[in-house]
Structures are given as C-alpha cells and as structure tokens.
Amino acid sequence: MEFSSLKKYSRLKWLIPVFSAGILTAFSLVPADDWQDKITNALALFNKRYPQEKVYLHFDKDFYASGETIWFKAYIMIQNQPSLTASNLYVELLDKDGNVVMKKRLPAAGAAAAGDFELPETLKTGQYQVRAYTAWMLNYDPEFLFYKNIEIFDPAKKNALPSRDTAISRDFAVQFFPEGGNMLQNAAGQIAFKAIDQNGYPIAIAGTVQNSKKQTVAEIKTVHDGMGSFELTPAAGENYKAIVRIATGQQKEIALPAVQSEGAVLKLYNRGSRIFYQASLANPDDSAYYRMMVIAQVQNQMIYKAVLDAGEGRISGFIPTQSLPSGIVQVTLFSDKGQPLSERLAFIRKNDQIDLSFMNAELSKDPRGKSSIELFAPDSVQTSMSISITDADQVLKDPDEHNIISNMLLTSDLKGYIYNPAWYFQDTTKERLQALDLVMLTNGWRRFNWQKILNNDMPKIKFPYEQGMSLKGTAVTNTGRYPLVGGKVDFIFKQPLDSSTSFASAPTNDKGEFEVPNLQFMDTVLVFFQGNDKQKRWKDVQVTFEPHFFDKSPQVTLPYPMRVPEGLDLAAMSRFLNTASESNKVNRSMSNKTVYLKEVNIRDKKVTPQQTTEQRYTSGLFSSGDGYTFDLTKETPYQTNVFQYLQSKVAGLNIAGDINNPSMSWRGAKPSLYLNEMPVDVSMLANVNINDIALVKVFRPPFMGGFGGGAGGAIAVYTKKGGDNKGDETIRGFERMKKAGYSLVKEFYSPDYAVKKEVHALPDKRLTLFWSPYISVDSITHATTIHFYNNDFSKHFRIVVEGIAADGRVGRVEQVY
C-alpha cells in the first residue's frame, strides 16, 4: 500500500528537545554574538528554502541484454522523509557519450513511481547509465541526481563476451586526506588515503611515509577497498612524501599535502552513542583562533552548537547521538570571523532500518511449478515496497552493489565514487564501522558550500517544485508588436488514448504570459488553442509556447563515471546471454504468432500496418532492400529530429556530435541521405520536424537504390501525406499542437499456468520470474504472500524486496533459495 495521505511523519522530531537542552546547559553563560547568529541563521534559511530531494531506483536486475525490458521502481525522499507531494519523475537512459537514448516522464504518487525501458534488439550494446531526477533536483549540483551504470550485452554474441582489463601491471593513483582538511605543524593528526587503479576501482597498496631526511615516520597499509590511515605529527617547515607500491611491485612517490603553520583543525572520535570532538591549533599562542564555534548538522538541520575558547583550554566536547537516526553528521569548526576552518564527517550506524524477512517459502523447482513466499514486516508503520524475483544461477549481481540503504543513507549525500557501498551495511562489526569511517575521511559532503550560504549566495531556482505538468506561453497581438494584456487563451484537450475531451482557459498578465497548471494525462494529448482579446481591440492573436526542459534532449555531461564491471562469472554470463537470445525468439513469436485456419489455403501473407505505410510511401528500389523500417505514424516521438530518433536504434550506425549537424558512419563510410527519395544534405534532414515524418527507412551498406548510391548505407525519410495524422481533426478558429504527457507503463507479464492458453505452448525463458513495483503488507498480520510460476529451467531464485516507510526509514531484504 502506498502512502495515502499528506500527513507528515517526522523522524527529526528529536532535534529540538534533545539538543537545545544540551546546547543551553553546556554554554549557557556565553552570550550569542552576531557571527554565531549569522552562521546558524544561514543554515536555517538554507534548510527552509532549499529542501533536498533524493531519488533512488530499484531495478529487477543489474545486467541486461538487448531485447529485454528494464523494470524499475523509484522512491522519492525530501529531507530524508517520503516526498509525498512529488508529482513528476524523469528517467533517462544515456549512452557512454551522454546522448539520451530513451527517456520517460512518469507520474509520481505516494513518494513513488514505476516504469520500464523496452530495449530494442537492435540497440547498440555496451555501457549505459540510467539517470533519474525531479525538476527540483536540477536546481542543485547534478552529481546529486540518481545515476546507475548498466551494461547491456548482445545476446547474439554469447560466445564473444567483452574482454575485461585483466592486465597484471596496472597504473594506479593515491590521494591523501588529512583529518579536518589540513596538516598542522606540531598537531598530531590522522591522515587517510584512497588508492584506485586505472579503471577507478580500489586497489591495495603498502608503503611508508618519509620526511625530507628520508627517515620513515609512518607505515602505510590498505585496510579496506584501497583505503587506510596513519597517524602523523607534522614538524614545522617539514615536507613529507609517501613511497607506495601495489602487489605487482610497481612503485610511486607521492607528495603529502603541505604542512600549515597557522590555523585550527577538528578531530572526531565516533563512540556510537556520542561523538567526541577536539580542536587543535597550529600555534597554541595564536589568539586569532582562541574563540571558535562547533556546529553539527544532519540533512541541513543543526543538531548541536558549542562555543570554544582555546585560551581557557575549552577545545573539546561531546555530541550526543543516541536519538539520531542512521546517516551522516557533518561537524564544522568556525572562527569568530564566521569563517569555516575545518570539517569532518561521521556516520551514525544503527539497526534502525525497516525489519523485513521472508517466511514460509514453498518454492517449486519443477518446470512451470507454482511457488509462494511470505514477506513479513512486523513494524506497524505504513510502507511502500517493490519485489524482484530472478534466476539466481543466470542473473548475475554487480559486485559493485548499490542498494536503497547505501544510497539513501550514504552515497546520495557524498561526492566522489564509493565502491560497493552496500558492503558497509551488511552488519555493525568493528571492521565495517572502521571502514565506514574511512569513507567519511576520504569523501566530502558537498550539498552546500558554507562560504556561499554565509555570503547569501544561495542556489538559483530555475526549476519549480512541479505539481503535475503545466502549459506555459505568451500571447501577442498586432503581428507580434504588443503583448496580449488582460486577455485569455482558450484550450480544448483531446486525449486519443481514451477519446476524452477537456477544456481550460488561461488569463494573460501584463506581459502576455499565461499558464495552465496541474495537467495530468498519459501518452500524448492534442491541444487546440485560441488567443482571445476580451475587449476585441485586436483580431489577430499569436500564441507561442514555452518549451519544457524535458522536451529537449541535449547531450549530458556525465559526472558519474562509467566503469566496466569486474569480476563477472563468464560462464554464468554466457548462460544468461544464451537464455536471453532464446527469450527474444519467444517474444517475437508472441508478437507475430501465426494463426492457422482450417480448410483455407492462404497464399498471401497478411499485410501489416507497417507494410501498408511502407507500400504507400516507397517506390522502386527504395521499396525493398536490406535494413530497418520505422513507422512514425504509429508513435509520437519525443526526439528533436530524425538523427536523434535513430541514435542507438540501428546496430552499426554511428551518429555522434551535434545532433543538428552530426557525424555519421557505417562500416567506415558515410550514409547517403534522402528526403522523399531525393538526395539531400544533413542540414535539410535535421530541420525536418519529427512530427511531420511518416516513415524512415535505414538501408544497410552498401545501398545502390538512389542516385549515386552509398557504400555507407542510406537513410530515407518520408514526410506525411494526408490521412496519416491520426486524430488530427481540426476545430474551427483553433490552432493545434501535440503535447507529450506521462509515459505509459507496460504491465509485467506473469503467466498463470493454472489456466490453459495458446501462448503457453511457447517455451518459457523468463529470467525475471516476478516483478511488482507495488506490494502491500496486511495491517493486521504484517505480512503478504507472493505467488509466481517458475519458467522451464530455474533451480535457484534470488528474491529482493526494497522499500521506504512513512517515517522515512528504508529497508531491504535479499535471499537466495
């Protein structure tokens, strides 16, 4: 059951009662100064005006083959609470060059949304990335959008898997991170390090730290995933270097950060129930750093404040954490000039996630056997959950695992790549807590910059917090000389999907601007519009519409690097691709299943709608040929032009660069271009409105059908003729346009073998046996039972459930049977 009301559940209710008492009792005799108020007020203003929204996507699996469907469920949070008012979610599939290959605008409700990507069998295989976000999230650093690397394989090449980088000799890099940000002279401190190989994956190192006299002052050894730390008391005026090596013997010398002769630094000791902090000065006699302040915040909300006086020896204290939920605490040390001096992160790790478990599993390993399993959630708090059941022997897990817990509690708040973050949440052993603290030392919190918000340099809000879709524009009169002031624009919306009609009227302001807010419709709607001057001063009114950012598909700069997965079981991957190939054949049979009629001798094939369109438009050698046909009379493309439409749709055809003037190649040659079977150049085809195109034919190289032919194949574009604008009826006095709405979501196919159907005669090669983005738990029994049927071969099942609770907690359970 999804969250059904807008009631605010707050896990942050502990903030005011718990910590205000601590602040008052610790330093009740210290009067508040302007510099203190400036800092705390800046944080409070930022928290109030700029709430942080997050998105996480649960996928049915980690790897896919072309021809499969990517199923996903989105969870949306704001300030670590369910974002119940979020209405629009945007999800994109990006190729390795940042081109938008597919995209979805999905309706969100109850802090969730569900969707899918149908991967064409012709999709170019390789590395892709899924990006998901709300419009509000675009106002901030794009690194905090949701990203997931997904590799898509070619099932036809099951015996020629992509080669992995298994070179014995690897290049590597090491970064050093002094605790608190700086190495201060004569101040003992912890220095963390992080080592990665040439692919960006962690690598183990060992070595020593030497001073300028080549004396060893510290030992270096990796603790977990390329990370470790050592203690060092830097001497004044000294320079240090690290001499490190990897397992192959390759060695490097790396200079450590310079030793600072002035300033202050913050050290933390995370004791679980409380965090002990201590400030250290480079020069204990430097009175410029006597008065300082410590502020701790969680999710932009202050939880602790204390004023220090180094002159009186007051340089330390405790931050109580008993009432804090799991997550990152940011602790910052400020000077009395209001300048941030040092910063340190700590992670509060508790077993406070949703308690989920499986019970009463009755799983059949027989072909097409019926199975059932119970999901138990003893907590009475309302939850939103999704479930995936896959073949555990053929569907591989990415060793670099990201899940809802590691994302919502850790990686969504940090910049920088963290390998296999799910590992840190498997238990609360000392080993994992120490490794998690190394993550805090080597990755920075950057959701906001203290210096900027202290100077009132707040984020520029370019994108509103959307509530449904809106239609914005401007109306002008007198051939565009004047805005239509005090007029209106009338609308008629016709929905081809269900033949419904609705009406709206939007007034214009003194700039002629208008808006129709809170629109809700699926797929595509026909918009008929007419500008009206109420005072009838002008007969002509021209209406132009403001494009929505999602109507465009610019190339995306990817802040999150694509990395080739390592450590995959090639034998299991080969089995997966073999099954995916067979599954694609079954799906084609289901789509084009031949129906045989008794005592009827059929000599001619039935003409498909696509063939009908092709036969009406093509002629001569263009009517045949080896290639691909795309009938655009049966769809509403979102792309800007034909080149963007064709990206990644045709295997072997490479379209890259500026989409209005792309570079193209196929088998080393450039394809020939035709418009209505006449040769044209790139610019002419790029300027053809995608909505005016009826048919696109792409011919494999070589193509000899047109004038001159082409060693690089050909792209033939046909513009629409009368009758092909389906639903394009006109309304007198109104102009017309099409507007894309929410993407339709396909229903997951889950066969019921208890019922006899003709389609059951086909082989069952499903690798995702069950997927449901919305599962609910009974409020009385706190359990729900999931039923599903096996395919023809699976013997082991991986079952994963993820979800969020109404109070903001997250949960996950995974089991292999």
Automatic annotation (TrEMBL):
* SUPFAM superfamilies linked: Porins (SSF56935)
Q: Which Pfam families does this one have?
A: MG2
Q: Name one GO molecular function term.
A: endopeptidase inhibitor activity
Identify the stretch annotated as signal peptide in this record.
none
Gene3D superfamilies recorded for this chain?
Answer: 2.60.40.1930
**Residue ranges constituting the Macroglobulin domain according to the UniProt record:** 54-133
What InterPro entries does the annotation carry?
MG2 (IPR002890)
Query: Please, which domain of life does this record's source organism belong to?
Result: Bacteria
Where do the coiled-coil regions begin and end?
Answer: none
* Annotated protein name in UniProt: MG2 domain-containing protein
In its UniProt entry, the species of origin is given as Chitinophaga ginsengisoli
